[in-house]
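Exercise 7b. Backbone tokens:
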């Protein structure tokens, strides 16, 4: 039996009770350090808003406290015990690297769930402890949900979604907008390619007829002199490839959102327009590197682009990956499937600026879960 340190695993403050602080994940046993509170005090922290509920017989008042960012260092906040031959990391591409006791997979699942880079000693030089993302589950549930996610790792690999998970995690440490957007966009493309759309596939015979019709049309334009021979030659493979490719990414994205029940099966035109807007904004930034949108000045373009590529797109990725990891509304990992913000965005175009606030969403979920979790978050 081996025991190694886990760095930067954050499950809230103070140290949770035994039920939450120790968990078997596959054949691995993860346990928060006995001096967890002292270690957490030395971790870096982002700017935070701490909300609490003050309850009286007459009313409930929400109080907010704003905390500035805090510098810190890697801290061993937990340990993992395992046997070498029991587990392998399946989320890795290289077969030779998989015999690590499952540590790579464990760290990446915990990173996805907590929104903080969790590592063992050998990866401390590769990453930074002050890289933050959105947490996919309530802090206190990190180990419980990791246990469920562990059972569904093969599902990610079977569907070729493990790379999307790794790219999502890597994006946390990137501050350059274009690079971060590229990671998120590639992760979303992987999910879209894996997703089976509701569109009926066009048969090979029909696709062949379409290509012949297009080829004839190009020949007519060439004969009339409207297209030069070299231009028609360049168009032909592009148009043929689009026929074979099928639905455009906007259609795939709409189908994905419908399967996740974020958008209805018969959406109004304005919702379809927002789906197209998300797809165009992310692709434009990746291809041009410039957050310039038609009808907006540069500052407005930046604000809108940042909102789409660093908040809306990763939220879609989080929900899609969480679903394949076994999380469902009303069950373990339910918070990961919270889609109120996305539903509101595709209905009215506003994402987290109005309506649902993060605390209210967490509190609503917590009240459904259990009293201990509620007390710790509030």
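Sequence design result:
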């Amino acid at each position: 039996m081996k025991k190694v340190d886990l760095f930067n695993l954050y499950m809230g403050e103070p140290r949770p009770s035994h039920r939450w602080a120790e968990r078997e994940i596959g054949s691995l046993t993860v346990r928060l350090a006995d001096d967890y509170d002292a270690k957490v005090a030395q971790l870096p922290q982002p700017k935070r808003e701490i909300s609490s509920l003050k309850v009286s017989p007459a009313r409930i008042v929400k109080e907010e406290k704003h905390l500035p960012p805090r510098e810190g260092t890697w801290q061993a906040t937990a340990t993992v015990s395992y046997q070498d031959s029991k587990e392998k990391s399946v989320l890795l591409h290289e077969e030779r690297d998989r015999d690590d006791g499952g540590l790579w997979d464990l760290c990446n699942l915990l990173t996805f769930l907590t929104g903080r880079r969790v590592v063992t000693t050998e990866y401390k030089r590769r990453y930074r402890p002050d890289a933050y993302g959105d947490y996919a589950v309530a802090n206190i549930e990190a180990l419980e949900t990791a246990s469920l996610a562990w059972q569904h790792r093969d599902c990610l690999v079977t569907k070729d979604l493990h790379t999307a998970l790794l790219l999502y995690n890597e994006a946390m440490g990137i501050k350059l907008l274009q690079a971060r957007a590229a990671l998120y966009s590639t992760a979303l493309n992987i999910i879209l390619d894996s997703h089976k759309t509701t569109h009926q596939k066009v048969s090979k015979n029909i696709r062949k007829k379409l290509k012949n019709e297009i080829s004839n049309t190009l020949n007519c334009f060439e004969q009339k002199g409207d297209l030069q021979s070299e231009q028609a030659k360049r168009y032909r493979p592009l148009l043929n490839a689009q026929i074979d490719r099928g639905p455009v990414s906007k259609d795939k994205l709409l189908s994905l959102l419908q399967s996740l029940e974020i958008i209805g099966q018969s959406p109004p035109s304005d919702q379809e327009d927002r789906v197209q807007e998300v797809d165009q904004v992310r692709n434009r930034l990746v291809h041009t590197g410039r957050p310039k949108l038609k009808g907006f000045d540069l500052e407005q373009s930046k604000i809108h682009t940042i909102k789409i590529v660093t908040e809306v797109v990763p939220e879609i990725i989080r929900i899609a990956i969480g679903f394949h990891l076994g999380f469902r509304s009303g069950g373990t990992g339910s918070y990961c499937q919270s889609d109120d913000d996305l539903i509101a965005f595709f209905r009215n175009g506003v994402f987290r600026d109005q309506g649902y606030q993060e605390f209210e969403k967490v509190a609503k979920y917590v009240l459904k879960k259990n009293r201990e979790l509620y007390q710790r978050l509030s």
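Instructor comment: The radius of gyration is 24 Å. The chain has 15 helices and six strands.
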